[in-house]
Amino acid sequence: MSQNKARLADLSLLGSTVIWGGTFPVIKLLVGQMTPHYLVGIRFLVGFLALTVFCLPRLRRLDGRILKIGTLLGLVLWGGYITQTMGLQYTSASKGGFITGLSVVFVPILSALWLKNPPRPSAVWGVVLATAGLAFLSLDLSTGFSVEIGDLLILGSAVLWALQVVIVARYAPQMDSLLLAWVQIGTVAVAGMIFAGVTESPPIEWGASLILGLLYLAVLATALSLAVQIWSQKYTSPTRVGIILAMEPVFATIFARIFLGEVLSAKAVAGCGLVLAGMLLAEVSPLERWQEGRSA
């Protein structure tokens, strides 16, 4: 693996993570102007059309395997985005960002179940810490031990994000990155628009803030960032991807503070710290294994 390409992959993925962190306040604002299924469907439809311009010269490389894996990735992505978008209607953007970050903890668990790569004790303790952090973030002790529906929806999206990382790590290195991203984005667009048409009313008012927000989500956070993620995972390990993605909730909190004026309580800050510590601790074991493999 070229060190220069690995470094470029890490930096590119970090840039995508900054963009993804910015989606939390944007979605939080847009869910008040557009229903969740239409928001996801239109976001990915515009992203698909934007990426099509760059994929047209490469369509001769499109084969059944890319279609199959891309469709699978698209269905996983659709599930992740729709549960995240719906969840942000019932919880804060910064809190949603940290719960989504639990996907980093789920990566070694899903890798063990699917790729037969069991986690070491450090990963198990990472899960414990992150779960404790989630409890601090989600449980309102003044009203008893209750979890908000938005927290559970976003937790479900975190599992799906982890599954997406594992699938990309398994199949992407043998495929055309741009075409794989194109197929999965198109799949999300189709699923999103179908469910929107069946369950929701189309948006009526199209203001400047709605259009600009959709362009940010579609072009930067969807077409560009997903293509970058798939390309980056060809030159870096899933563990490094997980560590970099652990920065997403940090950026989400920063953007939520800047644009929404959200302030986390001391309990929530403690929860955020535990989640972040758990995410990083869960990555120690796979990282050590990856380094051992490189030095062997």
Task: Walk me through the structure.
The structure is a single chain. The protein has 296 residues and is mostly helical. 78% of the residues lie in helices and 0% in strands. The protein contains 13 helices and no strands. It has helices at residues 3-30, 36-55, 64-87, 93-100, 103-115, 121-138, 149-171, 177-199, 208-232, 238-245, 248-260, 266-282, 284-295. Helix 1 crosses helix 10 (238-245) and helix 5 packs across helix 6. Mean pLDDT is 82; it is low at 286-296.
Question: What tags apply to this protein structure?
Answer:
single chain, 296 residues, mainly alpha, globular
Q: What is this structure's SSE topology?
A:
Elements lengths: L2 H28 L5 H20 L8 H24 L5 H8 L2 H13 L5 H18 L10 H23 L5 H23 L8 H25 L5 H8 L2 H13 L5 H17 L1 H12 L1
Helix pairs in contact: 1-4, 1-9, 1-10, 1-11, 2-3, 2-8, 2-9, 3-7, 3-8, 4-7, 4-11, 5-6, 5-7, 5-10, 5-12, 6-12, 8-9
Could you tell me the mean pLDDT? 82
What's the order of the H and E elements? HHHHHHHHHHHHH
Overall geometric form = globular
Distance between the termini: 14 Å
Low-confidence stretches: 286-296
CA-atom Rg in angstroms: 19 Å
Q: What fraction of the residues are assigned to beta strands by DSSP?
A: under 5%
**What's the β-strand tally?**
0
Judged by helices, strands and strand pairing, the structural class is: mainly alpha
Biggest sheet statistics: none
Count of alpha and pi helical runs: 13
Indicate the percent of residues in helices.
Answer: over 70%
